[in-house]
Amino acid sequence: MPEEDPLADPGADGRSRFPNRLIHEKSPYLLQHAENPVDWYPWSEEAFLRAAREDKPVFLSIGYATCHWCHVMAHESFEDTEVATLLNRDFIPIKVDREERPDIDSVYMAACQQMTGQGGWPLTVVMTPEKKPFFAASYIPRETRFSLIGLLTLLPRITQVWRERRSDLDRSGDRVIAAISEKLFGKKESTYLKLPHLEIDSLTPLDKKRLVKNLHREMLLAAQDLNFELAAEIRDRIKEIKEAN
After folding, report:
1. Treating both helix axes as pointing N-terminal to C-terminal, what angle do 205-224 and 166-185 enclose, rounded to 10 degrees?
2. Which of 154, 182, 210 is the last residue of a domain?
3. Any domain includes 29
4. pTM beyond cutoff 0.90
5. Long-range contact list for 167-170, CB < 8 A, 24+ apart?
6. Tens-digit pLDDT profile for residues 158-209
């Protein structure tokens, strides 16, 4: 009998085979979710290409290793096969460590604050395959209680709206991106400065400080424009400069 691929796409029942794709990541937070029944992707072009190909919304969950409510939501929902079935069947689930990708976290936290007036972790965002958010919240329980809607109720509702009112969600995502762009940067469109290629060893401490400050803003501009590949490149450059003696 041929050996099964543990990272194969979920079957008709929507369940993921264990472990999921996070097993190959280095982040302690992502590795905590590698045994979830949710078919998590790390942030990657592969995930968004699949979302576009299958015409599914992306379910983005952002947290960090020492976050209490991240662990609560993980235990209640992401370890639950009923929730996992809904996520795997109707969404493309993505997990992000905010300490590993502050560029992604900053943009979608701003989106959450724009849509809800508040924010926090775990950060839950649902977006189009073009990375435009139309729903955001922080902690969401498995089942509805008090004034908090549960995932078992929320996910089917989002799926229904996605199928029946897709154009409304697209317009909502466009408005959110425009609003947070103006709020964060004071303008609706951004142009990127080219990432400088400098001899770091020749920089004075003051020059390094100024360069890091400029690159940090450039990283946020790239993320604001949903160019997370460039943002990651700039983030790595910042790390290189900080670590240089």
Report:
1. 160
2. 182
3. yes
4. no
5. 169/57, 169/128, 169/134, 170/128, 170/132, 170/134
6. 999 999 999 999 999 988 888 877 666 554 333 334 334 455 566 677 767 7
Task: Check residue 42 and give its pLDDT.
Answer: 96
Q: What count of Cα atoms within 13 Å lies in the side-chain half-sphere of residue 67?
A: 25
Question: In which residue ranges of the chain is pLDDT below 50?
Answer: 1-16, 187-197
DSSP code at position 6: T
Cβ contact 136:108 at 8 Å: yes
Contact 215, 238 (CB under 8 A): yes
Instruction: Give residue-wise pLDDT tens across range 25-40.
Output: 999 999 999 999 999 9
How many domains does one find in the chain? 2
CATH number for the domain spanning 62: value is: 3.40.30.10
Question: Do residue 129 and residue 70 come from a single domain?
Answer: yes
Residue at which a domain ends, from 158, 182, 206: 182
Distance CA 51, CA 220 (A): 24
pLDDT at site 193: 41
The pLDDT of residue 188 = 39
pLDDT score for 126: 97
Whether 98 and 218 share a structural domain:
no
Shared-domain flag, residues 125 and 98? yes
Q: Which residues contact 14 (CB under 8 A, 6 or more apart)?
A: 84, 85, 86, 87, 88, 89, 90
User: H-helix or E-strand containing 95?
Assistant: strand 92-97
Other CB atoms within a 10 A radius of the CB of residue 16 amount to: 24
Residue-number span of the structural domain to which 75 is assigned:
21-182
Q: Residue 44: inside a domain, yes or no?
A: yes
pLDDT for 236 equals: 80
Asked if the structure places residue 14 within a domain, the reply is: no
